[in-house]
Amino acid sequence: MATQQTPQAVDGTTAEGYEAVRRVFQELVDEGQETGAGLSVWRNGEEVVRLGGGWADAGRTRPWRHDTLVQPYSVSKPFTALAALVAVRAGSLELDRPLADTWREYAGNGKDRVTLRHVLTHQAGQPRFPASAAGLDPLDDAALRASLAAAPLEYAPGTRIGEHALTYGHLIDGALRAGAGTTLGELFNEEVRPALGLDAWFGVPDDALGRVADLEHAHPAWRAELPSAPWLQVPAGPLDPAVTNSADWRRSVFGAVNLHADASSVARFFSRLTDAGGPLRQLLGRELHQAYVTPQVTGHDDLFDTELTWTLGLLVDRHKIAKGGIGGSAGWWSPGQGHAVAYLTRRLGDHGRAARIAAALGDDLTVTPMES
What we know:
Elements: E1 3-5, E2 10-14, H1 19-30, E3 36-43, E4 46-54, H2 77-90, H3 116-120, H4 141-150, H5 168-179, H6 184-196, E5 200-201, E6 216-217, H7 229-232, H8 241-244, H9 247-251, E7 260-261, H10 263-271, H11 279-284, H12 286-293, E8 297-301, E9 306-310, E10 315-316, E11 321-324, E12 330-334, E13 339-345, E14 347-348, H13 352-360
Parallel strand pairs: 6-14
Antiparallel strand pairs: 1-2, 2-4, 3-4, 3-13, 5-7, 8-9, 10-11, 11-12, 12-13
């Protein structure tokens, strides 16, 4: 693979046959659709595309590097789920045991039947924080967990599906603290990330803060125009660059959205997602690994307003296993094409950029429902 550079702040490597992918990525930067992103494609155990473009900071002084870390929003959720599943394999959590058996504060207001399986498949009945959490500091994870423990459910567990957009990580963290005696950040950083070889963190260490990219809105009205706004209004902060670009936020753990990772790590992870001899199978064991990558529940997802199929942590359809994040980041494994892709961006807009990259690879990011 030959290193290629252009004067347009795009550099990296592309293997033969992937020229169209580089061309599209270059166009995104040239058109101003992208101001800072990393793109990685893995095939047959090799990284065949590794590109970075634009800048890592709002002031346009730090070029995007291949080790630049960025917050990909809900692309975080599959990694959050892994921490829970590691605890399940260790025997400290159970998929079908009510969370309230160990998280005593969680038992009230009809939540005594909510299980970890409900949480992992977005059926727990708490797809958003209660209105009582509106004034909470987004960095006060203890108060946010307490607000969920005190709140009633929006619907009975297991009766509806709707991505738990901001609550997912706090529910899992609460279960881990009560049932496993550890935290989401500790379990992920100390067990999951080294086992999978990830340059990814829940709670960025101080020596890596200088590699984190600043987030910025694609246009001033972006946040107000989001169809998912009702799920994202409470608490205030997770969509505000003044919050998310702070060192305090980057050091914190807001497990639904604030993993910080580089594109190569995420694409490599997706490339071995279904590998029966890979590190993920070794980490989870056969049964949990299968549940992590195969359909567990299908139905109308309230957040996306369409039929979706969830595994224990990922979205799956007829052509891919994937997870996208609000703002435009996405990671996916395409079994038919035999490649895995990660497009991680700091410019918060729509998924049109990732869709153009996907099209250049022969992929389609449109959800194609599972056959009944």
